[in-house]
Structure formats: structure tokens, C-alpha cells
Amino acid sequence: MEKILEVEDLQVSFSTHGGTVQAVRGVSFQLNKGETLAIVGESGCGKSVTSQSIMQLLPASNVKRLSGSVRFKGTDILKYSEKQMRKIRGSEISMISQDPMTGLNPTLTIGNQLLEVVKEHQKLFHEEAVQMVVDILHTVGIPSPHERMKQYPHQFSGGMRQRIMIAMALICNPEIIIADEPTTALDVTIQAQIFELFKKIQRETGVSIILITHDLGVVAQVADRIAVMYAGKIVETGTREEIFYNAEHPYTRGLLNSVPRLDMEEGELIPIPGTPPDLFAPPPGCPFTARCPMAMEVCSRVEPFHSKKSASHSVYCWLQDERAKYAFLTMGGRL
Amino acid sequence: MQAANQEKIRTASEIPDEWFVPKKKDGHMQEAVVRPSISYWRDVWYRLSKNKLAMLGLAVLIFLIIMAIFGPMIAPQSVTKLSLTNQNLPPSKEHWFGTDQLGRDMFSRTWYGARISLFVGFMAAIIEFFIGIIYGGIAGYKGGRTDQIMMRIIEVLYGLPYLLVVILLMVVMGPGLGTIIVALTVTGWVGMARIVRGQVLQIKNYEFVMASRTFGTKTPRIIRKHLLPNTMGPIIVQMTLTVPSAIFSEAFLSFLGLGVQAPHASWGVMADDGLSAILTGQWWRLFFPAFFISLTMFAFNVLGDGLQDALDPKLRR
Amino acid sequence: MARYILKRLAAMVVTLWVITTLTFILMHAIPGSPFNQERNTSEAVQQNLKAQYHLDKPMYVQYLYYLKSIVLFDFGPSIKQPSQTVNDMLGRGFPVSLELGMTALIVAIFSGILLGVFAALKHNGVIDYLAMTFAVLGISIPNFILATLLIQEFAVNLKILPAATWTSPSHMILPTAALAVSPMAIIARLTRSSMLEVLTQDYMKTARAKGLSPVKIVIKHALRNALMPVVTILGTLAASILTGSFVIEKIFAIPGMGKYFVESINNRDYPVIMGTTVFYSIFLIIMLFLVDIAYGILDPRIKLHKKEQ
């Protein structure tokens, strides 16, 4: 499979009133062409910051540190200037943000907002651009595109607005779409429709998708591969099957156990106790140590190394080390 | 990223075997730090005090009030002493702010003027506060039809050009301290009434919501104690902004000849007098009243701004 | 949209009615007013007044004649200068006042918006700090006080600008400046805070994510939304410029409507007072109405309120 995006050791810190926040602390992953990669984690784990860093959309004044590399089709775009990034944004890498209710400018028609993307990146006559807008609206399932182009965002429902946002991301045929919690603000039924749309688009255009979410249920439907993030680091990556059936990292397992399923018996929901660590002064070692039921001494001293369980399945956990087998013998726990 | 105290370890073999044992749990690592909660007003004061400009404004105001009360007493010269020999003297050791066309000491006149201008300002704010609370309180409390009618009236009154009405009233009633205050408050209360009504409606909503839930332990009184500080905020800010507006209007009327009459002299009257003298080079007769009017308004505005920021619940940390 | 306009129109008519009636009541309430038939004016003037204002008829008839005179826009002659009608004075003075007021308003709007936008874009920078300090000073110093200080400095001390009348472009500088500073400061502050809020909105992030150029983002996306609150206060600002012009015209001896108005107040020239008050009120209320309409046009949520129902 061809790698279209390769992120290596991404690190991002912000300066805030309270001090320096280390939001992303050495994240590495890759995206293959035509696949959907889901980045999963709880609020504040750094997944949104990661996706915004890829497109260099962080609020510049607060960023204290932005290092690592983001290779898009071989070139490190993290080193790109703002001018160079502008050529990529919207045309080669697009982003769909969280809240469709506020993501569209209320004083401009949606046609206007779609046209400007096309006109910014491609040299077309007005009529050709309009035709592209009509086509893309049709693709995302907005009826009567010619008329509805002239309407304003407040005249559309939430689900429709999200489709319009998707249309804006798609219209220039990008290589990658980053969808940051695209359905969090929508009803469950609409959610399903939106993901159907994603799958259809991927089938038809072969676009690669990075899906940011905290909702494991969504991930199960849509993702090909999954990366699990915690407190600014990736703790595990793998295919959908590997993560759901063979999760190795205690955090991943904890997440799976805390998601309610229809076929569960009573009493099976097990929340993960505690709260994520303070990102102002992250403790040394593995970030999950404080809440991990299987923590060892080494976990609080040294950051876990990378271990590969298979070509696609990576874990960052000391339990993978040979010597960990003996640590819990007395507990009788399964490793 | 290397966190603090990270041991410099490159390969797995460098890690001692004995570290692969279960970690003893310290309970404190699991819970986030809970910030102690501060009382609402202390928080507001804390935030206000951080705002240097607002604090400056407050200091200036306190200074002006003190001077208004004590100024004429500490002035080396009497305010009423006319002197035909000392007319129009520039500032000097005997007359710190100079003298006016009747030989009166400008320094003490300035502080008498302060009394009048500040008096007008505060009285207007207080009266408007009471009228506003009564009107707005009734409208908000009663709701329904009564509210609708009362708000219609306010809408019409709001549309009237305020200063025009004030001028007309002054022409009708004749200039003077009392009539000025009446004229200012007759349509000025509208702003306060609107705010009070809005706040009353808010409080009503809370009580209603709370009552419809079943909180056995929480009584409405406690809720009011918690919510009332929130609702007083805009009212206080409005008052801080009414005072400079009244002082402005009074000075404005003075320039039109509709201000307080002799022998009383507000800053506005003094400035109007001083204006006619600038061509003769007697700058002090205009400068001091003009400066103090501006300074007062500046102080109130800055304090009002600061209060508004300090009371904004969205900024509460 | 049509409903919106009609509602505003109705409100306008009501307010107009209230103020003209108020003026009528007040004029007749003044002790010593010629309308009260006291003997402080000459016989000839009394006769004129009687004829003009139908003073021998009952109050409500006088009121109706009054309303008629408003609709027809005929307020009769001035008491102090019987050779001139109020309409004469309006005709001479109003264009001057309009020129002064409009210039001040336009200057205030442009510079205020520019200042506010730059302050917001360079938030917490030097420009922001300076602009906002200037703005606070601007709203604190009353325009007539500023006028006196400007005259003191520029006309008396430095002798570079004229202090009075309205005869050449250089005569316009000081009065316009005095009138424009306060509204400019208000607009700057409002634009800045509105801009700051808009800049944090999600649709701004979307615009950046689309790869649009920063200039385009600011002008097309940010400014449109940020300027809406500014439009709503334009009416009140026009009102304050108008009332401010009374004193400014007096101070600078500018032969505008305000100067006649102020003189008439001092002279108790009631027809002129009445006529100018009514005229001013009508003008203001129409301005407010226009601003409301403009806002309705600009905000698509109001424009299309009924359309898609």
C-alpha cells in the first residue's frame, strides 16, 4: 500500500496563562492511500491538535513548539511556509470541522462559500465553477442544488450543513480529508447517513481519510486502521480487527470495556478510574501509569518503547517486554 | 519528548530487571487537583484589582470625591471673595489655579464646581436606579400583558432623542440645579429599567427551573443568594456609566446657557465662561474645568469598563 | 422583510407623534410663553401670533392646527425676527449643518472601523493598546470640551487653524474633528470587540482550512459579520452628532441650524424652537428607521425570515 501521509515524532506545545502545555509529545503514524485511519482518544488527548498541526492551522501566537515531520507524498509539509500551505489547504488536504452549525459563515450563501474554494485553487470560468458546485452538492446528497446554492446556512438542517461542509472539503478533489469529530454535534440517525456518505465518497474517489473521534462505535463502522491516543502520545495502532479483538494496551482495553453494547449483560460497563495527567508538567514514563491496572515500576520511569505485534499492529507498553510476563504471576491475571 | 526526570535510557537492556514489578499505587496521582472555590464577590474584586486602568480610575474618583468634600476647606483662598484687583490672574503661589474675571480663586471654585457636577451625576444615577428598579421590576415580575404594555412604552421612550427632550424641558422649567436633575432623569431611567427587567426575568427563570426539579435540600433562598450576585452585575455597570453621562449632559446644558445659575457654578458653567476668555490668553480659566470634566468621565468610563470585564462570568477562571 | 419594514415604520410614526405632541404640550406649558397670552410681547406680535396659531380657539383645535402645520411643514415666522419664517432659517442653516454632520460621521466611520480592525488583528500588541487608550480618551472628553481645547491649542496658541465660521475647507477641520472623535472612538471599540469575537468563530477556521488568502478572509468573512453591530449603533451615533452640533456650531460660530436653535433657546423664540425641534426629531427618527432597514438588508436571517416558511 502506498503511504500518502507519514507523521514522525510530532511535538506541539502551547504557551498559556498557566504555563506551557505539552499537547502532543512525539506522535508518529502513517496514512495509506485510500484508507480510513481513525485517531481515537478522550477529550484533551491531543488528537485535534495533531490534525490541525498537519495543516498548520494552529493559532500561531500561542504555539511555542512545533517539531517533527509530516511527509505528504514524500515532502515534509511541516516545513512549508504559510503561502505554500495555502496552496495545499482545501485542494490537496481538506478539513471538516466539528460543528456544522457554526462552521459556515451565516452571512454568505452556501454557493458563495463553495465557489470560493474552487476559484481559489483552480483557474475556471464562472460557469464551470458553478457546475462543479452543483455536481458536488449532488454528490453529497443535497437536492435541487441550483436553487439551494443561493440559500443561506440557517436555511439548512444540521445534517445538511454537515454535508455542505463535506462538499467544501471535497470540491477540489483532495488526496486527504481530515474529519475532526464530524458527527459529534449530530443525531445518531444522521450520523449513520454521514458515514454512509464518507464510505461512498471513498469508494468513488479513492480519497484517504483521517477520522478524529472519541466515539468507538463510529470507529467500528468506518475505520480501516485505528490509532489510539492518550495524553499527547499514541499508545497503540492497528487494523480494525486487531484493535477490537486483540487490543494489547491497557488503555485501549479500558476504552473497549467502557463502551456499552447491546449484547452486554448487566454490570459489565467498567469505566477507567481517574483523570488524564496534567499536561503542564507531564510525569515521566508512560502517561497512563496512574490509571493503569497493570502498571509496573518501569512504567513511571521510562517511556515505553515501540513494539510490533505484527506488520500493522504497534503497541507502546512495557507489558510487551519479555520480563513483564513474570511481574503479575502472583496476581493470576492474563497478560 | 523527554519529560522531566526521564532517565537516559536507549535500549531495553539498560533497564534493570527489578523494575518489572507491579507499581504501588499512590491515590493522589489519580485525581486532578481541585481548585478551592472563592466567593463570587471576592473573585470579582480580585479580577478588578488586576486591571490597572480601572484601579487608576477608582483612585482618581476617590481623590475627586475627597477633594470635592474637603477642597474648599483646605483652599488658601475663599471661594466667594471677590476682588477687583485680582482679576484674571494666572496660576501663582496664592492662587494655584489662577483667578477668574471677578477675582475669585479658581482653585476653590473648581472644588465647589466639583461638588455640583458630581452631585448632579450621582443624584441622576440614584434616581434613575430607583425609577428603573421599580418600573423594570414590576414589568419583569408581572410578566404577560403588563410586561408587554410596559415594554411598548419603553420602546417609544427609547426612540426619543434624549438630549432634545432634556433641552425642551429645561426651556420649559427654566435653568437651575433641581430642574436639571429632573430633566435628566425624566427620560434617562429607561436604560436602567430595561436592564432590571432583563435581570428579573432571568431570576424568574432560575427559580422556575429549580422548582421543577426535585432538589430536596436546596431552598430557593440559597439559589437566590447564589444567583443574585450574577444579576446585580449589569445593574452596577449601568450605574457607573450613568454618572458620567449625567455630568456630560449637565456640562452640555451649561454651554447652551441652560445650566445651573449663578452663584452656583458647575464645571460646565466654568468651562463655558472660560471659553470666552481664551482669545485673551487666559488659558487657565478654560483649562481647569475642562480638564476635570474629562478626567472624571475618563475615570468613570474606565472603572465601568473594568467592572464589566470583572463581572463577566465567561471570564471566570 | 416587508413585515419588518412595516413594523419599523409603525414604530417610527408613533415616536414622531409622541415627540411632536410632547413639544406642543411643553410649549404651551411654559409660563410666560406668548402662547399663554401673557403681556410680554408687543400688540403687533400678539396679533400675529393669534392669527398664526389660532390662540383664541380651544386647545384641541390648536393642536390640530399644529399637527397640520407639521404635515405641511410650515411653522410660521420667528418671533424675534418676524421678517424670517422658520422655514427660511431651516433652509439656510440645515445644509451647513448637514455638511458638518455628514463629514464628521463619515470620518468617524472610516477611521473608527480601520482603527478597530487593526487593533483586533494585532490583539494585545502596541497598536491595540494605543488605539484603545485613544478610544477611552475619545469617549471621555465631551465633544464641546474637546472643541474648546482644540481652539485653545490650534487657533490661539499655534495659530495654524481658524477658529470660527465656515468659509473655507480649513475652517472645517477643527469643528469636524471635535464632532468626529467621540463617535470614532465608540466605533473603534465596538469594531474591535466585534472583530475579536468573530475571529474566534468556527467559520473563520473553516475559511483558513480552505486555503483562502488572509486578506480575503478578513474582508469577506470577518468584516461582514463584525460590522453588523456597528450598523446598529449608527442611528444613535447620528443622533449624538446632531445634538453635539448645536454646541459645536455655537462655539465655532458656524451658521448652521444648531446656531439658530441655540439662539432661539436663549431668546425664547418659540416658533423657532418648536420648528427646529420637530424638524430635528423627524430627521433623527428617519435616520434611525433607515439604519434599521439597512441592518435588515444586511442580515440574511432577517431578510429571509418569512421566505422559506
UniProtKB/TrEMBL annotation, chain A:
Keyword check for Cell membrane: yes
Alphabetical UniProt keywords: ATP-binding, Cell membrane, Membrane, Nucleotide-binding, Transport
InterPro entries from the UniProt entry: AAA+_ATPase, ABC_Ni/Peptide_Import, ABC_transporter-like_ATP-bd, ABC_transporter-like_CS, Oligopep_ABC_C, P-loop_NTPase
Keyword Membrane among record annotations: yes
A Pfam family hit: ABC_tran
Coiled coil residues, start to end: none
Gene3D superfamilies: P-loop containing nucleotide triphosphate hydrolases
Location of the protein in the cell: Cell membrane
GO term, biological process aspect, one: peptide transport
Membrane topology, record value: Peripheral membrane protein
The ABC transporter domain, residue ranges: 5-256
SMART domains associated with the record: AAA
Descriptive protein name: Dipeptide transport ATP-binding protein DppD
Organism of this sequence: Weizmannia acidilactici
Taxonomy of the source species: Bacteria, Bacillati, Bacillota, Bacilli, Bacillales
From TrEMBL, chain B:
InterPro entries (alphabetical): BP-dependent_transpt_permease, MetI-like, MetI-like_sf, OppC_N
The entry's keywords: Cell membrane, Membrane, Transmembrane, Transmembrane helix, Transport
Subcellular location: Cell membrane
Superkingdom of origin: Bacteria
Predominant localisation class: membrane
Listed transmembrane segments: 53-75, 116-141, 153-171, 177-196, 227-248, 286-307
GO cellular component, one term: plasma membrane
Domain ABC transmembrane type-1: 114-304
Membrane topology: Multi-pass membrane protein
GO biological process: transmembrane transport
Family, as annotated: Belongs to the binding-protein-dependent transport system permease family.
Protein name from the UniProt record: Dipeptide transport system permease protein DppC
Taxonomic source organism: Weizmannia acidilactici
Lineage: Bacteria, Bacillati, Bacillota, Bacilli, Bacillales
UniProtKB/TrEMBL annotation, chain C:
Highest taxon above the source species: Bacteria
Compartmental location: Cell membrane
Keywords from the named record: Cell membrane, Membrane, Transmembrane, Transmembrane helix, Transport
TM regions (residue ranges): 9-30, 100-121, 133-152, 172-191, 226-248, 278-298
Main location: membrane
Pfam families, per the entry: BPD_transp_1 (PF00528), BPD_transp_1_N (PF19300)
Membrane disposition: Multi-pass membrane protein
GO-annotated cellular components: plasma membrane
GO BP, sorted A to Z: transmembrane transport
ABC transmembrane type-1 domain span: 94-295
Alphabetical list of InterPro entries matching this protein: BPD_transp_1_N, MetI-like, MetI-like_sf
The keyword Membrane is annotated on this UniProt entry: yes
UniProt key word Ubl conjugation: no
CDD domains registered for this protein in UniProt: TM_PBP2
Family assignment from sequence similarity: Belongs to the binding-protein-dependent transport system permease family.
Name the UniProt record assigns to this protein: Dipeptide transport system permease protein DppB
Gene this chain is encoded by: dppB
